[in-house]
Amino acid sequence: MNNFKKILFLIFGTIFIMGAVGALWLFKNQESFAKGIPVLNYHGVEDGGNSPLHLSRKEFEEQMEYLYRKGYHTISPDQLIDYLQQGSPLPEKPILITFDDGYQNNYTNVFPIMRKYGFTGTVFLITDEVGVNKRYLTWEQAEAMRKPGGSIEGGFIFGSH
Hints:
Mean pLDDT: 82
Strand content: 15-25%
Number of helices: 5
Distance between the termini: 17 Å
Structural class: alpha/beta
Number of strands: 7
Radius of gyration: 16 Å
């Protein structure tokens, strides 16, 4: 599959998943429709990149700083599912932040910015590329992101893309 087809597949796949989660939420919580939960999906954060899937570090930091100033609290996919299926409580102003593919810059650029604001995120790894392709995370980096400071609390969550 060429790169253009891969990009289209990733974009439409992400849109489909976000739409399915949104439809499930709407179906389960019709009475609280006004309390939507934003889901932000990123791929990479790097300066000088020539990809529509990547933001600059400055742009990404501005977005995270905005969310921090506005009082948003990051949640995990499990928290979102528990909320949708069982009505479990969420923090005020919940937001789910995800990253597709597991690019190396998720560790070098994203991780420090997210920690600066006390945020966590979910990275959906292309597991065949982890530790093999230098553009992607290593398993050691993923483990360091999963348990910052030796604690699972506040760590990133990982899933398969």
